[in-house]
């Protein structure tokens, strides 16, 4: 595959924006709720340079794009949050965690609404803007849905820890060091093992794809793009 600057501009640009705003939102809400850890480190900022992880934000998405991966994702440097410093640690944890996915849904709504202005531009510029907006819509919804999976350290896991009764929250919280291994297991290893036995064990990815599709269609309806 011959990757072009055009391909990079319509995929990496919306991905960098989505990830940057996601992380900045965590830091902003944490600061408002009493934890200034991220603020002191300059992470309450929408400047991408402060959040970019060279591998997760740039190299990994480029590799996936070049390798014809059916999905494109990445990550930024996580914003440090001291949940004990929040005025109400449990509820604060929920609000800080959900701030990222909510921000991504807002960005997806803005991208979808902006479709209405594409026709005002010259043809070449209109196509470039349309591709950026289309990818921004998809990327932001995928980030929001994926991050709301109830597995720490994903945002959904921290929301669950903050809302569940203590007897359930504590065991779930203890999974955080192993969260990424669990994700790799259920999203990559389990489907691979299943395929060896002729079984479709790609259940989680199927749920994520279906949910993402529904949310994208809802956003298109809400923004008058049907």
List the helices and strands and how they pair.
Blueprint lengths: L4 H28 L4 H4 L13 H13 L22 H26 L8 H25 L7 H9 L2 H8 L5 H18 L6 H20 L4
Helix pairs in contact: 1-3, 1-4, 1-5, 4-5, 4-6, 4-9, 5-9, 6-7
Strand content: under 5%
Classify the helix fraction into a percent range.
55-70%
Task: Tell me the radius of gyration.
Answer: 19 Å
Record field, number of beta strands: 0
Low-confidence stretches: none
Distance between the termini: 33 Å
- Look at the helices and sheets and give the structural class: mainly alpha
> What's the domain count?
1
What's the SSE pattern?
A: HHHHHHHHH
Approximate shape: globular
| Number of distinct helices | 9
Q: Can you summarize the main beta sheet?
A: none
Give an overview of the whole structure.
- By secondary structure, this protein is an all-alpha fold.
- It has one domain (5-176).
- Helix content is 67%, strand content 0%.
- It has 9 helices and no strands.
- The longest helix has 28 residues, at 5-32.
């Amino acid at each position: 595959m011959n990757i072009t600057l055009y391909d990079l501009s319509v995929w990496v640009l919306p991905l960098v924006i989505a990830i940057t705003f996601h992380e900045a939102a965590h830091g902003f809400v944490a600061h408002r709720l009493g934890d200034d850890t991220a603020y002191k480190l300059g992470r309450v900022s929408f400047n991408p340079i402060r959040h970019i992880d060279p591998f997760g934000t740039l190299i990994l998405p480029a590799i996936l794009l070049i390798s014809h991966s059916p999905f494109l994702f990445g990550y930024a440097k996580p914003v440090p949050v001291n949940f004990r410093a929040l005025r109400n640690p449990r509820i604060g944890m929920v609000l800080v965690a959900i701030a990222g996915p909510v921000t991504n849904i807002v960005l997806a709504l803005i991208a979808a609404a902006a479709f209405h202005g594409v026709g005002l531009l010259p043809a070449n510029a209109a196509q470039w803007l349309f591709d950026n907006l289309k990818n921004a819509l998809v990327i932001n919804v995928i980030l929001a849905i994926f991050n709301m999976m109830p597995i720490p350290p994903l945002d959904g896991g921290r929301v669950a820890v903050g809302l569940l009764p203590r007897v359930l929250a504590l065991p779930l919280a203890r999974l955080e060091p192993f969260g990424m291994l669990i994700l790799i297991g259920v999203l990559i290893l389990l489907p691979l093992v299943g395929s060896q036995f002729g079984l479709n064990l790609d259940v989680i990815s199927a749920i994520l794809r279906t949910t993402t599709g529904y949310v994208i269609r809802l956003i298109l309806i809400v923004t008058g793009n049907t």
